[in-house]
Amino acid sequence: MTPAPVLLITGASRGIGAATARLAAQRGWDVVINYARDAAAAQAVAAEVRAAGQRALVLQADVAHEDQVLAMYARIDAEWGRLGGLVNNAGIVDRQARLDEMGSARLQRMMAVNVVGALVVAREAVRRMSTRHGGAGGAIVNVSSAAARLGSPAMYVDYAASKGAIDTFTHGLAIELAAEGVRVNAVRPGITDTDIHADSGDAERAFKLAGIIPMQRPGRADEVAAAIVWLLSAEASYTTGAIVDVAGGR
Ligand code: NAP
Description:
alpha/beta, 7-stranded parallel sheet, binds NADP nicotinamide-adenine-dinucleotide phosphate, about 250 residues, about 45% helix, 9 helices, 7 strands, Rossmann fold
């Protein structure tokens, strides 16, 4: 029997990453569930992947630390072998604030996780999937945000700028790898009902802002996951460099 393709999802212990792990398992992927702090939540997602009949591997790594990312990939190489897909999903926000209220430690951390972390995680996937490196191809889906378009004034322009970088890197990397068997796309979620909003200081934010969303409701993590898993799939075989808005019209 051909082994199932292996998918690494960063930040898969909750929210959009966890929903993607569940759906990917239903579609036949074996899933590596990366997380930063919440081992119990990551193990619970792994149990759901296994219940769907697929293998699950839970690996802790803070994507802002290159040594931890390299150790994570070394474990995947040793225990599962060939990587077929990456969902570059781990991301953070911080308290709602204006730029003139933000300290440099916050700005450094935002870029270290959301930008440099995503680039390093993608680099290691390229080294394994690109035909230039002897790989058999694959797909990368980066998780951006509608904030990249909107700028998030008086909320978190640092976060918005980090997601602008994700869009630009998606575009460039897609072309860089287009003839090497690796497709690179992004999804840009709008306001989605996950626990991330509590980190911005308002756990109810997603529902409070429903009125500014043309569809008058926040998105669900499984709605974002559906776009991600489609972009990973063979049905998207001619789609690369695309940025798919999943934002209720906003
Ligand atoms: P979430 O519920 O806060 O989940 C974040 C996940 O990322 C958790 O699994 C967390 O693991 C992990 N994580 C955080 N920092 C990490 C790090 N340094 N290294 C590795 N993993 C890390 O977030 P979400 O709402 O699902 O968001 C997922 C992605 O969608 C993010 O990139 C976010 O920017 C983007 N997005 C979200 C929304 C929204 O409204 N929810 C809108 C647009 C874009 P632990 O729990 O173990 O720390």
